[in-house]
Amino acid sequence: MLKSFIPIMIFLSAFFFSGCASVQYPYRAEGSGKVSVTERSYHERVNILQRDLTALGKEIDVNETRLVAETAIFYSMDLAGEYRLISPPILHNLLVNLGIKERGLCIHWTEDLMKRLRSLDLKSFEFHWAIANHNSFLWKDHSSVVITARGQAFEEGLVLDPWRHSGQLYWILVKEDKYPWKPESLVLK
């Protein structure tokens, strides 16, 4: 009988001792759910992402890079608030899978960010649904958005991953990431 309580105790320990408070960012206004775009760290991140997006190709519209950078960074933080995110992401996943939380799996982040970015109707970029570790043991598959210059190979793109750091957008070139990304169209044939 005691053995049946061990998994429950492990879960409760993880829940109570992991700092299960909402994720906070230095540029999020306390308690308002709004992001302060006047914070220096926010602008630094936007500038770095804009630089990395510009490096994807020679024919890229600089205004579009700014719009993508601002949208991706801001909206990722916004989604963290909307999902009432708990950190670390793997714990939040557990709460979603148990039905305690409604959204916040990487697939939700990808779906929502992809929808927002595609609504920008950009000419310089294409957005791809990316999947890594498909059909792996214990739900270790991962979804994210990959952005490429229009007509550019998927493998040359930039991963935009809001899930990995709980709404603090993470980005890296596809070929440099630890995840073996593939386009959704190839994975789900």
Protein architecture, described:
This protein has one domain. By secondary structure, it is α+β, with helices and mostly antiparallel strands. Strands 4-3-2-1-5 form a five-stranded antiparallel sheet. A hairpin with an 8-residue loop joins strand 3 and strand 4. The chain is globular.
Number of individual domains: 1
SSE string: HHHHHEEEEEH
The poorly predicted ranges are 9-22, 27-32
What's the number of helices?
A: 6
How are the strands of the biggest sheet laid out side by side? Answer: 4-3-2-1-5
What is shown here, in short?
The chain is of the alpha+beta class and about 190 residues long.
What labels describe this entry?
globular, five-stranded antiparallel sheet, 41% helix, single chain, 6 helices, 14% strand, 189 residues, alpha+beta
Q: How does the SSE layout of this entry go?
A:
Layout: H1 2-17, H2 40-54, H3 62-82, H4 89-97, H5 106-118, E1 125-132, E2 142-149, E3 158-161, E4 170-173, E5 182-183, H6 184-187
Antiparallel strand pairs: 1-2, 1-5, 2-3, 3-4
